[in-house]
Every structure is written in C-alpha cells, then in structure tokens.
Amino acid sequence: MHQTSAQKQKTLLFALGALLGVVVFLLVFGTTTLDIANDSFCRGGYIEKDIQQHYAGWLFYRQDAQGWPLCVTGAMNTPEGLSVAYTDSIPLVAALCRPLAAIWGGTFQYFGWFTLLCFALQGGFAALLCGLFVPGFVAPLLGSLLFVTSPILWERVFRHTSLGAQWLVLAALYWYFLLRRQGRCGTPGLFAVNVLAIGIHPYFLPMTYGITLALCLEHAVQTKRWQRPLAFFACNLTATGLLGWVLGFWSGRATSGGQALYGYFSMNLNALWNPSGVGGVLFSRILPAQNQVNGNYDAFAYLGLGVLIALPIAVFVLRHHLAQILRTHWALALAGLALTLFAVSHVVTANGVTLITLPLPEQLIQLCSVFRSGGRLFWPVYDLLVLAAFLGVCRLPRPMLGAALLAAVQVWDVSPALAQRGIAMAAAQQTEAFPSALQSNFWQTVAGRYDHLESMQGMQDDALHLALYAADNGMTTNDPFAARYDETALETRREALLAELAEGTLRQDSLYCFADEGAFLQAVEPVKELAWCGYVRSADGQYSWYVIAPGLQGTTFDSLCTVYDENYPLHLADYTDALWNRGVLDATKQTICFADSPFARSKLENAAALCAAGNEYPILNVDTSDPGWLMVTLEIQDATVLWDQELTTR
Q: Assuming Cys at both sites, which of 160, 358, 389, 570 could form a disulfide with 310, CB separation 3.0 to 4.6 Å?
C-alpha cells in the first residue's frame, strides 16, 4: 500500500509538472502552432531559417515513395537519397506522422504538437527530478518552473525544433539519481531515453549516454560487479544503433557538408551570464549582452538571474557536503567535466577574443566535428547547476520562501525574452521573417514543368525557399539541403552534369540552377539554343539565380529575368580577399575582374571601353594571365561605382 501511494504521488507530481509546461507554452505561443494545417511559421522562418530546412525535409520525405530504411527519401540528394534526420526533421516523429499525413491530406506540420509535448515532458521530468530531493508538491513544481522557463530551452524551440527535446537530459538525470538511491544500474525508462534520443536528434546521445555511463561506472565500482552495468550499457548501444538503422542514419555517407569544424561553435567562457540570444533578444532585464566570437551564439547557456544569485548561496549552504557529493557522484562529475571541456573546445574564447587555440591533430578535429556544435553538450551540466541552485535555497531555514523567491526572480528576469519569442511567433503567422526571393513569374511558369531541380553549385542564402519550391512542385533535387551529406558524391554528380552540358546534352525533365555567374557562363554556350538561359533576380536585386530551362527558348518573362543572348551584360565577379573587394582591386581601384568565360572574352575582345549607366570608361589593359579570371584596368577614379551594374562594351 505504501508503494502504491508513493507511485500515485509520483504520477500526480509528473502530471502537475507536465501541466505547468503546457500552461507556459500556451501563455507564450498560444494555440496557432497546434493547427497542423498552419505551416506559415515553418515556411517563413522563425527567428532563424533552420525551420525551413526542417520542414522542407519533411515535405520531401512525405511526397516520396516509402522505402527502407524509414525516413530516407530519394527526393533530395538524388540519386543517393538522404535521411531526414540530417535535415533535423525529427525522424522518429516524421516516420510516425507520415501515415497520419496521408490520411489527413493537404498541409500537415507536426512541429507545434511536438514542441508542446516537449514542454509537457520538460515540466514533468523536472518536477520528478526536484521531487527526489524535496518533499511535497509545491516546492518541486517551483523547481519545475525553473526548467520550463529555462533560457536554453526557449532559445531553441521552433528555431531548432528537435533540440527542444531537452526533457531527455532531465529524464536521464532523474533516472540516474533514482537508480543511485536504489542501488540499481538500469531501468526501462533510462533505456527508452537513450534509444529515443537518436530518433529525435543525435546531439542528445553524448548527453544521455554520458549520464548513463556515469551511472554504470559508479554502480560497478560500488558493487564490484561489472557484468550487469556492462550488459545494460551494451543493450542501450545496440538498440540505439538499430533504431538509427531503421531511421536511415547509416544509409549512404552523410559524414560531410558545411565549412565550420569543431571549435567554431564553442562555448564562450562568459556563456553562463551572457543573456544575448539569437535575433537580438536579451534573456535578462538586468544583465547586459556580452561580446561573442565565431559561433559562440550556438552555445548560448545563460543561467538566469535567479539561478546566478542562488548558486553562491547553494555553494555556501552545501559547503560541508560538497566533498561527499563529489565522492558519491564521481563519475557524473567526470562526465560533466568532459562535456564542459568539449563544449569549450580547443578554441578557448572569452568575451570578444580568442584566448588560445590549442593544437589538435587534424584527424581528431574531424572526428570531433561529428558534433561540431559542441557548445550544446554543456546542457547536462547546465541542468545540474540549475538543480544545485534550487536545492541550495531549499536548504535555507525557510525553504518554501527561498524556492518561491528563486522562481520569482528567475521568471521576472527572463519573461520579457519569452514574450518577445511569443511576439515573433505571432508575427511569423502574418509576415514571413525571411521572405522568399522567388518572386519572378519565371518560377510560376516552370512550376510543374520539370521533375528535377539540378543544383549545379552550392546555393545562396535563399536556397531553403528553393527547397520548399521544389518540394511543393513535386520535384526531386540533387541538392541535399542538409547539415550532413556526401560532398564527394554530390560534386561527382555535378561534374557529370557539367560534362553533359559541355557536349550539348540537356535533360528535358530538369531545371538547371547555378549560384555563380562565372560557372553559368562556362556551361551555357553549347546549350543556349535548346533552352531559356539567363538569370532571374529577386525584386530587390539582392539575389540572382542563373538558370538553364530546357524547352522554354524564346519565352518572354517579366523584368526580373535577363535572357542570355548577344545583349547579355557583363557583371563584376563578386570576388573579395585581402587585395580585392567585390571584384575591384583595393590598391588602385582602377582594376576590375571578371570570371573567365568564352562570353566574357568575346565581349572584351577589341573593346575600347566599358559602359555603365550612360558613362564610358576606356579600357587600358586586359590581363588574361591569371587562370579563371580576366583582369581589366580602366581609366576610372573609383571602380566601385561599377558594383551591381550591368556593363556593356564599345
């Protein structure tokens, strides 16, 4: 009867904590994101563009024929295909929702309900975790409030939706402390947490497994029996690997992609008291934004004013017990230290400077780059610090008052930031945060005409809208639009396509898109009579796509389109380095450069002057000695006036 009563109390505490999480979610976001037919915040981008990638991955997967492994779609990264795990589309949820979406028909987005579930589980497991150390319901729920208003949680939700599942860390910590008390090394709950982690986001794996490993090591040392903890850990790994296979993690070679390596997204040493979030949001009413360098923003770890005040109090109150705590939880302390060191990385930064870059072997950097956003791995330590602050004030003479003051100060400090996140979501329902630049009637004309979008190079900033465009129109694409993919295979395919174009061969079912004008001009000449060729720009002129559209030769489009013909203009190469600034030589500002191509050479051959905006600039010299570039010296005071200009020759 006692066990039954305790279990009921635990269930009620979890339910109340989950309800608290749901209430906080609804107070900030309302119910609009729970409408599965409302995908405006997915398409327009919320805070960052990443959610467009997550949603595009889901759309490609949903429209493609179901295959095996699950979550692998051949509609992107064609022909190899790719798991939507690498578009952060929450692969386990995508697999479960696919049959529901087929029954529903029409628009179907699951990101709102997933996030609501994350808040419920965050609140529930936080309440259970706090309830292990303080009795009753009120105090654990005050502790749960710290976690459902956690800045690191709110910094991620709907921005990197899958990383909102931070309840996985709290659940792992809950099982760790519970099992340590019970003298056990495993439970189905902890097993489920470790296995589910790979189905949501692989970055949670080192966090939950670090906690699990600490539990197994401490149990083995304490009992001097290794078989059971070793077997439990091995079963976790096996089941995790199996689910990863089912969800397509091991399908193909998704091991490269992206330029940033381990160390770029490191945790700044000021992270715990730096309230500066992405999008200019400050998570503190009091503390000012601190400087950051490189990708420190991704290692955001502001503790909140309440926790920052309570932590020194906790250290003082628990000072006589700290040594015993570390002796008892030595493996957890070591795991926390390892995760912290990995988060700080070998590129040690403080405020706006890099203090030191420790030399590491290139092979080790590549290995660590599997988790290149290493600053996120600090989250278990972050949660332990919040828990320590809460437990410290609960040891004061009036624990309930201390817990209430801690929660009140914490919520007061971060509440404006939470409100701003809610305002941003409301705005995302009305106006796109990142509006598409695919505004020309060219895109409406070619919609549904082609089966495949051939990305001939890496895409520019509006590439994710291009991904949504392709998915909406039932097109497959060789572009992965993903965080991880096989760069070598992609480049091999692109080289094969360029070789076809050089031979005058076009695939009639494919739309060819180039990001760089120089590459377009190199490829277009042999096929210019077989397709509409030219560039399509955005209304503000900021973006341009260089396209080859088979079968549309002679078609006239709106003023945002410029056809490739004898009147096609020259443009400065957008080349910048220590000597050049957007195609203009800094030293003299009289020499400009063009990407070398048969078209550019023909335009410059025997030309006496360049013309722009009604002005003529005599050509003094054309230098073709640098492979890939044509450098032209003009009689001009400052050639930067030619930036973004359409140039002709005389």
A: 389
Select from 489, 556, 546 the least CA-distant residue to 520: 546
- The tens digit of pLDDT for each residue in 471-512 reads 999 999 999 888 778 888 899 999 999 999 999 999 999 999
- Nearest Cα residue to 599 out of 506, 515, 525: 525
pTM of the complete model: 0.92
CB 513 within 8 A of CB 535: no
Query: For the chain, what is the total number of helices (H) and then of strands (E)?
Result: 22, 17
418 — phi, psi (to 5°)? -60, -40
Nearest to 350 by CA among 302, 283, 294, 278: 294
The H or E element containing residue 206 is helix 204-223
pLDDT score at 3: 62
Between the CA of residue 388 and those of 318, 392, 393, what are the distances in Å? 9, 6, 9
Mean pLDDT over 520-544 rounds to 93
Kindly tell me the sign of the dihedral angle through the C-alpha atoms of 597, 600, 603, 605.
negative
DSSP string, 588-640: TS-EEEEE--HHHHHHHTT--EEEETTEEEEEEEEE--STTEEEEEES-S-GG
pLDDT of residue 460: 65
Residue with tokens 């013909």: 565
Sign of CA dihedral 522, 525, 530, 535: positive
Q: How far apart are CA 62 and CA 74, in angstroms?
A: 11
Length of the chain: 650
Q: Could you give the 3-state DSSP secondary structure of residue 63?
A: helix
Mean of pLDDT values over 630-644: 95
pLDDT in tens, 243-297: 999 999 988 666 565 557 899 999 999 999 999 999 889 999 999 999 999 999 9
User: Tens of pLDDT along 560-576?
Assistant: 999 999 889 999 998 99
Apex CA 75: angle with CA 371 and CA 527, to 5°? 110
Label residue 353 exposed, middle or buried (CB < 10 Å: 0-12, 13-18, 19+). exposed
CB 37 within 8 A of CB 106: yes
Decide if 307 contacts 287 (C-beta within 8 A).
Answer: no
